Predict the 3D structure of the following.
Amino acid sequence: MEISGIISAIIIGIIIGVLGRLVVPGRQHIGVIWTILIGIVAAFIGAAIAHGLNVDDTSGVDWIEWLIQIGLAAVGIAALDRSSPRRR
């Protein structure tokens, strides 16, 4: 992976994190930085899964890869939200 691919993965990861947070119902009690980090990790793992399933390089938009990444981000955000102590 080239440096431009890593930079684009980080930018896409930020978008994935925000979309993953929107998918999770209710209010999440985690910060923006955690959301971005989860999105970046979900983008990398989702890209690897899409590559393994051979759906990472299609003509047009890679909707299946995006859905995998957003789903992973939503799971990560929900898991971190449940594990963090609640502030009242």
